[in-house]
Amino acid sequence: MGDIEIGQSKRARAAFDFDQIALVPSRRTRDPENVSTSWKIDAFEFSHPIIAAPADSVVSPTSAAQLSALGGLTVLNLEGLWTRYADPTAAFAEIAAANSNTISSVLQKVYAQPIDPELIVARIKEMRAAGIVTAASLSPKLTQKYWQQVVAAGVDLFVIRGATVSAEHVSNGDDPLNLKEFIYELEVPVIVGGCATYQAALHLMRAGAAGVLVGFGGGSSGTTTAVLGVKVPMATAVADVAAARRDYLDESGGRYVQVIADGGVHQTGDVAKAIACGADAVMVGSMLARASDAPGSGFHWAVEAGHPTLPRASAIATTAIGNFEQILHGPAVNSAGLLNAVGALRRSMATCGYSDIKELQRVEVIVSQ
Amino acid sequence: MGDIEIGQSKRARAAFDFDQIALVPSRRTRDPENVSTSWKIDAFEFSHPIIAAPADSVVSPTSAAQLSALGGLTVLNLEGLWTRYADPTAAFAEIAAANSNTISSVLQKVYAQPIDPELIVARIKEMRAAGIVTAASLSPKLTQKYWQQVVAAGVDLFVIRGATVSAEHVSNGDDPLNLKEFIYELEVPVIVGGCATYQAALHLMRAGAAGVLVGFGGGSSGTTTAVLGVKVPMATAVADVAAARRDYLDESGGRYVQVIADGGVHQTGDVAKAIACGADAVMVGSMLARASDAPGSGFHWAVEAGHPTLPRASAIATTAIGNFEQILHGPAVNSAGLLNAVGALRRSMATCGYSDIKELQRVEVIVSQ
Amino acid sequence: MGDIEIGQSKRARAAFDFDQIALVPSRRTRDPENVSTSWKIDAFEFSHPIIAAPADSVVSPTSAAQLSALGGLTVLNLEGLWTRYADPTAAFAEIAAANSNTISSVLQKVYAQPIDPELIVARIKEMRAAGIVTAASLSPKLTQKYWQQVVAAGVDLFVIRGATVSAEHVSNGDDPLNLKEFIYELEVPVIVGGCATYQAALHLMRAGAAGVLVGFGGGSSGTTTAVLGVKVPMATAVADVAAARRDYLDESGGRYVQVIADGGVHQTGDVAKAIACGADAVMVGSMLARASDAPGSGFHWAVEAGHPTLPRASAIATTAIGNFEQILHGPAVNSAGLLNAVGALRRSMATCGYSDIKELQRVEVIVSQ
Amino acid sequence: MGDIEIGQSKRARAAFDFDQIALVPSRRTRDPENVSTSWKIDAFEFSHPIIAAPADSVVSPTSAAQLSALGGLTVLNLEGLWTRYADPTAAFAEIAAANSNTISSVLQKVYAQPIDPELIVARIKEMRAAGIVTAASLSPKLTQKYWQQVVAAGVDLFVIRGATVSAEHVSNGDDPLNLKEFIYELEVPVIVGGCATYQAALHLMRAGAAGVLVGFGGGSSGTTTAVLGVKVPMATAVADVAAARRDYLDESGGRYVQVIADGGVHQTGDVAKAIACGADAVMVGSMLARASDAPGSGFHWAVEAGHPTLPRASAIATTAIGNFEQILHGPAVNSAGLLNAVGALRRSMATCGYSDIKELQRVEVIVSQ
Q1: Cβ atoms A326, A21 nearer than 8 A
Q2: Percentage of residues of chain B with pLDDT beyond 90
Q3: Which domains, from first to last, does chain C contain?
């Protein structure tokens, strides 16, 4: 249980965040024009591996279409404001009018409105009508309740996302979601998480997941450590889950599960770092919430920020730095690492000498403290 | 003596604070409703393991009743203002009127008033009258002087608490307290500390303690390192003392001594971290001093802050963030990790997949720097 | 691939920056007057090893003459403002008028002007006319295009400098520069880089380089980590490349390649640190850009700061602290480590007991975190 | 040469400062009244081991008498203002009138005045007349020039102090001081340093030193790392030199050389930390310069701050926090660790369970980062 002795009765592993590591170029270099950033999950192919997270500050039915047109997978949160309000305009306006002192209670208030199952169906149909890859997320609890509507409405990719999702949930209450049975019965591919360890990920892979989310969801606005004492530094979590992918690939005789870093990707350089640790794709929230065309109205927040009795994320104020297109494809106007994320990934691959994402997973990394 | 070479004539161990570690979820999850946070010492059972520290800013005869009603053990300091003044109102008012420049000398002044032994008896009777588990603390020096009065007045749990308490105190002056004889003679269970090492804790356990306090008392307001050069990072101290508990359990043929982390628990997540290192319960000061109904009047201080010639703690200014109930049981209105401590512990256990405190001690931890 | 486990599928090396290390004096001391700071590359000898970097904020045809007179090698950037404008006065004025918000876009604008090949020739001739060692730099891409003009114009030292230069560039486009053939054909000595690893450096040495630049060019204004996720802490990079120099010395039967630390040298003490790691010389930008006679007009920037779509460096505001002479030879008026760089190096050698730069490479270093 | 690989051609040791370590109490405690803080060198005994450093901001002929009366050894700098000016009042006034921008050049100016050998004699006689242990310091260079006057004037303890003093100085100029011959010829005990390594210290011990100063002199105002790249973290340096003391004790058949930590002692807790690493005494500057009766006039500076061309220390502004007596013997009015240094040391020994300084050297230490 780790090579560090905390005290005589407890050992621990050292774990690393993306900001503690960096990529080292190989002895080869390439032209940025000659590298590929494409990413594929199941039958769906994307021109880049940057997934828009199911956060109300990033993905609305409208922005999903915009973001899809820019080449990436986009996930709508089916437990967000769009399924609680037929017209969430007033709720977004209330958020936009908040300040750093009031935002927590505003979020608790607007998310107190119950979810309307009919809106779940309506939102999925809205996305389908836009002709995009329709991906939407539910927590494990509500997955059990609403999955039939979601599938019937025509979702392409089903995302089951909670702070921690395990394939082995123990409950004395209602019969909990049996992920293994559920996923095999489903006709659509499932992305599921967060998970953060080899064992947890392996169980999710065995349950049939097409992709696993690595992390605890809260992302850059998460405060899980302060509130719960729980933390899984992302570089370590991704590298552990990538080991589970490798072992499951062998055990399953060739089923390759997508490893998606969900959290910790704050600057463009973090995309390359996540891949260097073994990720196939990244799910980002705050990075896209800074878009002038993001629905966040000056804030970014994870759904955990609206919890009625134990919020485990904060809303963070955002300043618009460009639109979705500029954030993903540039041009960057400074070197803050917030714009031209796909261009930066391409350049990173070229500098380090790798030609596609799978190859970049092999890049040497250093720890710098 | 440690695997780090400081220099050619000195080796050392690495030691860790709670903020350097975090819990890692297991592959299982649970419903928060299905976990138990209860804690037991001797014949007394509590619904949660968060003990109110014997600090005048937290525990008065009045607040002891409030806090007990909220489910936890509460300890009155018998060397605080309540045994120095029949009516400490004026002293508290002087503290409330102080600012960060004057508070140190105000504390030195109000604590210069000698202790009145009759008030020791009166305060214990006051607590008994309230029908709560009556726990009160003395330093080793005054324990020797006043223990008979304390026991006669009907204390349920006797707490002997000093910056460092050893079972082997060397003195050329008055015959010092012989802990071993003393504890075995006493009819009430004794909690004793601070201690911070395997050896010191083992000696206290052998002396008959029902619980040992791990730490140096000063807690979040302590400046022992600056003044004395002494420091025992809490994660390491707790894990060392938990090893002593395990070995003493074997040696004694089954006597289980409660390990209580006394210091370092500043945010709700630290409760789970202390338990992860092997604690059975935590003793908190600053966390409860932020209550609107705490007696601290805008400050939190440890008794060491009032030392006449060598203060080893600072008074820290506090801002009320909710009442005792909200701090312990929520609801939390933001994600700062200061409210709903019991709810956070419950959620932490559920997320990590453990059903009671004893089980949570097994959770995997990581070091993140 | 390193002794640190990031996670189960990824290992890494720890890497160190100059600010994490320091020199330890040997048991001998010397008089500062009796040590030599001289440095030699090919047939050119200099009284100190501090090379002025090809940054427009530092080296102009005029300042090159000043800096050469002060004893050091000075490199003009042939892709900077002096080859884009016959008279760059207006461009420098626009930069001088910028503030921290506008400087990025001003740089993108003034560097959008294309390079005029005739100015390349003119600038080299200007430097030659000043009677100094004429050193000038091009990126690999433009080296291929303009090297004949540069050589014909009479350059003494040819510097090929990019963020990452490899001896093995893969391109599907125009035939890329074949460094090995190119350098052997050339009649002038070539300094080439940046590189950051043993392998990459060894390949450049085998390609015939007289000196290799260690680092990523951006120096103190670089933000490569934020943008690309790439970073090579300088102490480690220099010590790795010095190992390549040693092995190539053996393999080549005696060809000693100069190792030049290009980045990370911010204070005078960093010069000694770079040498302690194995460098023969250092290339500095920001340190000289603080000169009252530097052309930078209140800013220092690397050429990467002007990239049209993905800037990977920031312009940093500078305050004049003395002229070139004072920065290099003193007197220092305070102990900030920004003045009298050569005097400081001399004193460092004397304190540690070494008499020349080659000897100083043997000094013991410690890691201090 | 160390167990950390900086890069493939360079290894290093980890080295530690006092603020990275702390003392751990043993299983025993003592009464503060029953511990001894006394310290002895040669025939001179002191009630505590805190030596006043030869800094003009701390020691004048007048303050030397005050500080001696408070129980400690006090060293006058014979290259300071008191030997440059018959009446340094005006120089001190100029310093007092300076601000943080002008202080460096003011120091360069007032220290430009040459040393008057007659004043060296006069100042020593002044101290003798006060009936105190007369200790005074010279740099190695001036020791050679003036030692006869110093000894003739009746110094009790001769201190040779430079940034780095080696027993093996190499010079092409005037014949340098041969420490070994010099010390054996001298009739008074010699304290010599700074040194920072086992080897350098062993050579000084073999040269006959009664005490060695560990460190680089500049102390809290030193900027040697920024300027020269040289640094020896104090915990490591003291522990290395203590190893040399142990080995020399054996080799010499019983000569015990005093190890004096000269630098890094900023707070009262650092005194205990230095002893824990093996020091017998500490030399402090900034701690005493904060006295209302210190001659520093609102600044503390090391003599290196006045160097004409390469200052390697900064003057730091000080705020009076009490007089010499309060700083050494209390009472402390807060817990900042700046007052009652001897009382804090006494309490630290009591808490950790040790009865004298030699015993305290055995205390367990931890590394906390």
Answers
A1: no
A2: 78
A3: 12-367 (3.20.20.70)
Task: Say what the ipTM of the complex is.
Answer: 0.93
Three state DSSP letters for chain D? CCCEEEECCEEEEECCCHHHEEEECCCEEECHHHCCCCEEECCEEECCCEEECCCCCCCCHHHHHHHHHCCCCEEEECCCHHHHCCCCHHHHHHHHCCCCCCHHHHHHHHCCCCCCHHHHHHHHHHHHHCCCCCEEEECHHHHHHHHHHHHHCCCCEEEEECCCCCCEEECCCCCCCCHHHHHHHCCCCEEEEEECCHHHHHHHHHCCCCEEEECCCCHHHECHHHHHCECCCHHHHHHHHHHHHHHHHHHCCCCCCEEEEECCCCCHHHHHHHHHCCCCEEEECHHHHCECCCCCCCEECCHHHHCCCCCCECCEECCCCECHHHHHHCCCCCCCCCCCHHHHHHHHHHHHCCCCHHHHCCCEEEECC
Best-predicted range by mean pLDDT (B193-202, C293-302, C340-349): C340-349
Looking at the partner chain, which of D163, D199, D226 has a beta carbon nearest the beta carbon of C269? Answer: D226
Q: At what angle do helices B198-206 and B234-251 cross, to 10 degrees?
A: 40
C-beta of residue B303 within 8 angstroms of C-beta of residue B80: yes
Please state, in angstroms and as integers, the Cα–Cα distance from residue D342 to each residue in B224, B310, D64, following that order: 15, 10, 18
ω into A233 cis (within 30 of 0): no
Taking the Cβ of residue B304 and every Cβ of chain D, the question of whether any pair is shorter than 8 Å is answered with yes
In sequence order, the β-bridge partners of residue D193 are: D161, D213
Which helix (H) or strand (E) element contains residue A362? none
Instruction: Give Cα separations from A173 to A176, B146, B360, D140 (angstroms).
Output: 8, 52, 21, 82
Amino acid in the structure at residue B230: V
> Nearest CB to C25: which of D164, D167, D225?
D164
Torsion of CA B192, B137, B53, B242, to 10 degrees: 10
Answer for the pair A211, A260: CB distance below 8 angstroms, yes or no: yes
Give me the residues paired with residue C193 across strands: C161, C213
pTM: 0.95
Test mutation, A16, A206, A310, chain B, max B CBs within 10 A: A310
Q: Does the pLDDT at position B302 exceed 90?
A: no
Read off the pLDDT of residues C24-56 as tens digits, 9 standing for 90 and up.
Answer: 988 888 999 999 999 999 999 999 999 999 999
Tens digits of residue pLDDT in B172-213:
666 677 888 888 888 899 999 989 999 999 999 999 999 999
Residues A231/B21, Cβ–Cβ less than 8 Å: no
The A residues from 114 to 143 touching C (CB cutoff 8 Å) are: none
Q: How far is CA B286 from CA B225, B255, B318, C331, C362, in A?
A: 19, 32, 8, 53, 52
Distance between CA D330 and CA D290 in Å, rounded? 14
Region of D3 on the Ramachandran plot (φ > 0 left; ψ -120 to 50 alpha; else beta): alpha
What does DSSP assign to residue A189?
Answer: -
Here the tokens at position D257 are: 């050389």
Q: Which of D130, D180, D175, D138 is nearest to D159 (CA)?
A: D138
Per-residue confidence at C173, pLDDT binned at 50, 70, 90? low
In this structure, what token pair is assigned to residue B338? 């200061």
Q: Find which of A1, A17, A29, A266 to mutate to test the C interface (most C CBs within 10 Å of its CB).
A: A29
**Quick one: pLDDT band at residue A329, thresholds 50, 70, 90?**
very high
How far apart are the C-alpha atoms of A171 and B104, rounded to whole Å? 52
| Chain B contact present for A367, CB below 8 A | no
For chain A, what percent of residues have pLDDT higher than 70?
A: 97
D contacts of B223 (beta carbons < 8 Å): 335-337
Is C13 in Cβ contact with A240 (below 8 Å)? no
